[in-house]
Hints:
By secondary structure, the protein is of the alpha+beta class. The protein folds into two domains: about 5-75 and about 110-280 and about 315-430, Outer membrane efflux proteins (OEP) (Up-down Bundle), CATH 1.20.1600; about 75-110 and about 280-315. It has helices spanning about 5-20, 25-30, 40-50, 55-65, 70, 115-180, 185-220, 245-255, 255-280, 320-390, 395-430, and strands at about 80-85, 100-110, 285-290, 305-315. The protein has a four-stranded antiparallel beta sheet with strand order 1-2-3-4, with no helix packed on it. Helix 4 (about 55-65) runs antiparallel to helix 6 (about 115-180) and helix 9 (about 255-280) runs antiparallel to helix 10 (about 320-390). The model is unreliable at about 1-30 (pLDDT under 50).
Amino acid sequence: MKPSIRRLIILSIATLPLLASAGERAPEAAAAEGIPEVLTLSWCLERARQANPALEQDAASAAAAKERIAPAGALDDPRFSYEASNIPTGDFDFASTPLSGNQLGFKQKFPFPGVLGNREAAARAAAKAADWQLEDRQLRIAAAVERAWAELGFAHRALAITDRNIDLLRQLTRIAETKYSVGRGLQQDVLRAQVELTRLLNERLSRVASVERAEASLAALLDLPPETRLPDTTDLADDAPLPTLTELVERLEERSPLLKRLRERIEEADRLERVARLEGYPDFDLGVGYRIRRSVPGDPVDGDDFVSAGITIRLPIDRRKWQARVAERQALARRARADYRNAHAALLNSLRSRFASLRQADSEVDLVGDGLIPQARQSLESTRSGYEVDKVDFLDLIDSQVSLLEAELRLERAWADRRAAFSAVEAAVGETLR
């Protein structure tokens, strides 16, 4: 055997320990987090609902928004006052004059009618918007989890397919070497087999790196430690029927939590505009007072206590200030409506795009799974049998083996893409369709 062939064989053998170590798992970190031996999508979704930090943020925001409703519709706290009234500076004696006394006061501010009701309604709309924001986030996180889970599943299967093809190519290499050793084969057949085997070994390194990247992406969504190693997933196949685009658009209009959130933001903006208008009218303070007195000589009422009541009215004379506040709220209300229209258009565009990707992946699954893979396997078996009896060229045998590898990878890629597209459609529509 020529030196060039021997070098290729030595390189392939030397690479095997590195590949084996690259594919080793670290199950202890996974076991510490209660990760199942086979990673199911349902486990990942439940883990994300409990641990994803983005969901925690939105849940906290929704809880805080609910707590703002009651204060928004409540009156300002009343004010209590005390005053030592009309004390002579000569002797600082409360009993030296009938005007002296201890004055107690109580005052309450009342806004113009309608202000508190609209403030409370605005806060309630904001709380509902926060709830829809949480639901929208849940759907988007679920879609991201399924996409990352499917990507991890594809990475594992691509690695397994590559390993199977490495084993198959080693068998073909041994056949080529045997035929060459007895004078029935060509040296270039052995060389081509070794080149192809080295290419697959190098590709396996890329597959291992893809598994690690997919693990990192899914672990981040599940709030798992960075050193966590995830096991293989369950089957990626999902034959849920595809709804029609018309049905999806109808569901989007009715169910999308994003659109519902923006509609609540419009309601909030309208209510705050009314608040700004009403705040431009007078509000008033009601107050009562009680003066505790002592009986002193010359007091015409013989030391009786005094009671008083009064009203203070705010006069909004600077109308430009209040008109500017109303104009600001009107602009914010227009922006809220524009946000809704923009999000509606973007959702429709995203839905159509994702649905097109879903149909493409679905067609790819049917084409590759039912047609291309069976044909590629049959072609490989036929070509291999023909090569063993010297009726088929070795290059044709290698091409058949490569065609089967590519077909198997295409099928797994199509299943992963179908899941990613389906989950994205569900996130856009606002409900689970499977």
